Predict the 3D structure of the following.
Amino acid sequence: DFITKIKSKIDTSTLPTLLDNLSNNQQLRSTLSTLQHSLQTIFDTGIPTQLSYGFIAGYLSGYTLKKIGRVASITFGVGFVMLQVMAYNGYINVNHERLRKEVEGILDRNGDGKVDTEDLERVVEEVKKVVGFGLLDDSDNEEAVAGGGGFGLGFLGGLRSG
């Protein structure tokens, strides 16, 4: 056992001397004082608070989105199958051409009549604008970036769990 080997190497009579030397070590005290000052400065900026708040909010958002996504995909999948079964048995008549035009109208963001990468780029830009709203404030830029970074990491963590 590793701990037993260490204990056997340390003589009980030398332990108090070792502790006394550590407590009287000026370089160690200086290093610990500098570390304490640096940590206090970091906590005073509020970045850790923003980071943790952003992470928790992101995690909950990602987790919720995953759960809602599952329910929505099951609902839409079952709904589609039910419509197809009803159409196959003659209970309803689905106008697929009209349905295609409606869906293309929703997905065609630039209005050119076709769904392509330009439409996807527009959607990505709209999402960036909404997600980034309020994050790039000049007065609290560090806190906003920390909160946004924490949110992103938490969101990915929430999507992966559950």
Observations:
- Residues 32 and 38 are 10 Å apart (CA to CA).
